[in-house]
Amino acid sequence: MSIDYSQKIPNNVDLASNKTLQRALEHWQPAYLDWWNEMGPDKTTTAEVYLRTAISVDPKGWAHFDYVKMPEYRWGIFLAPQEAGRTVNFGEHKGQPAWQEVPGEYRSTLRRIIVTQGDTEPASVEQQRHLGMTCPSLYDMRNLFQVNVEEGRHLWAMVYLLHAHFGRDGREEGEALLERRSGDADNPRILTAFNEKTPDWLSFFMFTFITDRDGKFQLAALAESGFDPLARTCKFMLTEEAHHLFVGESGISRIIQRTCEVMAQHKTDDPAKLRSMGVIDLPTLQKYLNFHYSVTSDLYGAEISSNAASFYTNGLKGRYEETKLGDDHRLDTAEYPVMEVVGDRIVTKHVPALTALNERLRDDWVKDVQGGIDRWNKVPEKLGIPFRFTLPHKGFHRKIGIFGELHLSPEGKVISEAEWTHKHRDWLPTEEDRAFVQSLMGRVAEPGKFANWIAPPARGINNQPVDFEYVRFN
Amino acid sequence: MTEIVKQHLIDPGICIRCNTCEETCPVKAITHDSRNYVVKAEVCNDCRACVPPCPTGAIDNWFPIAPGKPWSIEEQFTWDELPAPAAVPVATAIAEPEDVARLTSEATAGQGGPVAAPWSAEKPAVNLYNEKGPITATVAGNFRLTGDKASADIRHIVLDFGGVHFPLLEGQNIGIVPPGTDAQGRPHHVRLYSVASPRDGERPGYHNCALTVKRVTEDHEKKPVKGVCSNYLCDLKKGDKVQVIGPFGSNFLMPNHAGSSLMMICTGTGSAPMRAMTERRRRRIDLKEGGELMLFFGARAPDELPYFGPLMKLPKEFIDINFAFSRVPGQPKQYVQDRIRERHEDVWRQINDENCYIYLCGLKGMEKGVDEAFRDVCRQHGGDWDALLPQLREKSRYHVETY
Ligand SMILES: Cc1cc2nc3c(=O)[nH]c(=O)nc-3n(C[C@H](O)[C@H](O)[C@H](O)COP(=O)(O)OP(=O)(O)OC[C@H]3O[C@@H](n4cnc5c(N)ncnc54)[C@H](O)[C@@H]3O)c2cc1C
Ligand code: SF4
Ligand code: SF4
What we know:
- The structure holds two protein chains of two kinds.
- Chain A is mainly alpha-helical.
- Chain A is built from 13 helices and seven strands.
- In chain A, α6 packs antiparallel against α7, α6 (201-222) packs parallel to α9 (282-297) and α6 crosses α11.
- The longest helix of chain A is centred in the middle third of the chain and has 39 residues, at 228-266.
- The two termini of chain A are 28 Å apart.
- In chain B, the strands form four sheets. In chain B, strands 8-7-10-5-6-9 form a six-stranded antiparallel β-sheet. Chain B has a five-stranded parallel β-sheet with strand order 13-12-11-14-15, sandwiched between helices.
- Chain B is globular and about 70 Å long.
- The A-B interface holds A 59-60, 62-63, 216, 235, 238-239, 241-243, 245-246, 249-250, 368, 371-372, 375, 378, 458-469 and B 13-14, 16-20, 23-24, 34, 49-53, 55-57, 60, 80, 91, 93, 122-123, 125, 128, 165, 167.
- The complex binds flavin-adenine dinucleotide and iron/sulfur cluster (2 copies).
- The site of one iron/sulfur cluster has 13 residues of chain B, from loops.
C-alpha cells in the first residue's frame, strides 16, 4: 500500500523524505486501520462527522473543520515547533543541550514510558466503542468521535516516536500496541483503569473529565522531558487533550443543569421521584465521581517511588510546569509532604521530594479536578439548590500505595472491613445505580434534540449553532 | 456616532482553564491566576490565533466597550461570568462590518446604547457572512401586506437559503447589499432588515426567513425620494437572487425560559421582530410555557398595518393586542403611547414582573413618546421611571431598536 504522505498523513516531520520511517509506517498503517475498523466506534463507517483535523501546527492549520467519514480521518504526526537552544531543565543533566536522539543509557526506560503512555490511547477508543449507539444528541456524538480520532492520533504520535527513535524494538512495541485489548483477560491494556468498562455516557463524561485529566498531567510532565522529540510531541498532544477535558466537564455540567432544572421545577430532591422523571439524581452523580476519582488516582502510582525519582534525576520526566517552578530543579535536599497512616490516624510526614514526585503530580491533578468541581457547583448554586459536589479523601477506595490495604470513608476516616462492606453502597455506584443510568441511554440523533437527562450546551462547536447537523448519516 | 471599540474577553462560565490559549498566543497576551484565564487588552492585537485551538469557544468574545476603557486583568480575575450589562457579546467568525456596527449603534442610541440579551436568550450566531463572502438567497415569495389604497407599500418577502443552514434568531437582523453602485460609482452600502420569522424559519425545516420591508418613497422630511434598497427588495420577483450578509445583532433577543412574558411596542415595519417572537411563541403554544404576550402596535389605519389579518386570528388568551390608529376618519388620533397610558394597570404590573421583557421597534423618534408614557404610568402608581429604567436595562429587560 503506498501513501501520499503529505495528504494522507499530514505531518511536520518531513515524512516524505525519510525512507526508513516511511517503510516502518507503511507496515504499521494497514494494521492500524484494521484495528480501527475492528475496535473503533461501532457502526460509523458511512457517517460523516463534523470533525476538527490538524493539518499543520500553526494556529491556522491545526483546527481545520469539515465533514469527514471516520475511517478516512487523516491521522497526522505533529510535534510542537522546535525551540532553539532548548536544554534539559532538571535533574543531573540540567543545563546540557536537550537530546535529539535517545541517550543509550535511558533507552529502555524511555521506551517503557512511551509505550505506557501510548497504550492508554487505543484503550480509550476500545472502551468507548459502543457509545455512539446511545448518544444523547448529535452534538455529543460528534464530540465522542472527535475524542476518538484524537486518541487515535495520539497513538500515532507515540508510534511515530517508537519508529523514529527505537528501531526494531520500537516497531515491535508499535505492533503490540495494536494487539492488546482493553479488558481482555489474556492480553489486557497495561494500566488497570484502562481495562474498566465505559458502559454509558455518564461514565464517558466522568472518564474524560477525570481520567483524561490524568493524561493531561502525565503529558505535561513528559512535555518537560530532556528528550526533545518526546517533549515536543506531548506539547502538541496537550492542546488536543484539552478538548477531551472540555467534553467531560461540560457534559457533567449539563447533566447537573438538567437535574437541577427538574428539581427546581418540581420542588423535590427525592432521588426516586427524580429518577422516575428520567433525570440522574445528584447523589448518584456524586457516587460516579467518587468511583472515577479514586480509580484514576491509582494511575499516579505509589506515593513514594524510586522509579519516579530516577526518571526525574535522569531528565526523562519532569514536574508539572517544571520551568515555571522557582527552585533548583534538582531536588537533592528538598522535601515534600505525603500522608501516612498511624493506627487509625492519618498524619503528614515529610519525605525527600525526589521520591514523592508521583504524589506531587497527583496533588497537581487533584487541584485541577477540584477547580472543575467548583465550576460544577455553580450550577445548583445558581438555581438555589443546596447540594454541592465534593471530592472524597485521597485515600478513599484506593488499590495502590499507602491506602491500598485499608478502607477509608469519603471523609477520610479509617474504617473496618465490616463497615466498608456495609457502607460502600452509599459511596460508590451500585449495580442498581448503573442499571438505572443504563436505562436512560437511548440514541437521540436529530439535530437540535437532546436526551431528557442532559441539557443542551451553551454553545455549538466552531461557532456552529447547537442544532447544527454535526453528524450526517447516509 | 459613537466609536465602538471591542475588547477580547474569555467567558469564565465556559472556559475549562486548559491553558491552550496561553500556549498559542504569539504575543503572550493571555495569563491566568488560580481562578480565571484573562486577556491583557493592551497586549492583544486581535490576531485570533487563539480562537481555533480553544476547545470550548470560551475565548471567542469581543465585547464593545467605551473607547479607551478596557477591563483590566484584575477585574477579569474576579469574574464568574462575563459582565452582562452595557456589553454586547459578539462571537465572531469574521469581524463585523463597520457599516453594520455604525447602524446598530445608531439603532440602540434611543435607549442610550445596547443592552445585553436576556439571560435565557439563545446564543446567537453572528457575522457568518460578510460583503466579501455573502450568502445567496432566492426569493420564494413577495406579498403586499398593506391594503391596496394604503399610502405605504409594506411587503412580506420570503428568502430561501437553498438548503444551507443560516442560523437566525428572532430579533436579529440580516444585511442586504443592493446590487449596483451609487452616484459616485461606489458599491452601495449595506442595509439592515429585521428577521420576521422565528428561528426555525418561515416554514420549519426549509432554511428560509421572511422580511417585512417598507418601500421608501419619501425621506424623513417627506421629500420624494426612491430608497435604493427598499425599492430593490419590494420589486423582487419569485426566483430572483439576493446577496445576504450577517446575521447581526446579539442583544434584541427574546428570553427562552418558561414563564417569561413579552411586552412588544412597535410601529410600521418595527413589527417584524415582534412577528418573529410572537410566531415563535405561537408554535410552542402546546408546551404551555406560561408567560404573557402584550402588543402595542401603531399605524395610520388598519389597512396600513402589516400582519393585521393574521394578528386578528390569534386567540385572546395567547396575546393581548392593542392597536393605535392615527388616521382613521372621524376618530381621534391614537398613538401607541396613548394605549400604553390606557392600559396602565397591566403595564405597571408587567414593568414590575421580573419575567417580563420589553421591546420597542420602529421609526426613530417613537421611543420618546413611549418613554413619556412609561413615565406617566409610573407616576400614576407612585413609581419613578427614571430610577426604574436603568434597572430594567441592567436586567436586560428593556430593548430599543429604532431606525
Ligand atoms: C437595525 C435595523 C433594522 C431595520 N429593520 C427594517 C425592517 O425590518 N424593515 C424595513 O423596511 N426597514 C428596516 N430598517 C431600515 C432599512 O435598513 C433601510 O434603512 C430602509 O429600508 C431604507 O433603505 P433604502 O435603501 O430604501 O433608502 P436609502 O436609499 O438608504 O435612503 C433614501 C432616503 O430615505 C430616508 N429613509 C431611510 N429609511 C427611511 C424610512 N424608513 N422612512 C423614511 N425615510 C427613510 C433616508 O434618510 C434617505 O434620505 C432597519 C434598519 C436598522 C438599522
Ligand atoms: S487574539 Fe491573538 S493576540 Fe489576542 S489573545 Fe488571541 S492569540 Fe493573543
Ligand atoms: S483555550 Fe479556551 S478553554 Fe482553554 S483556557 Fe483558553 S479560553 Fe479557556
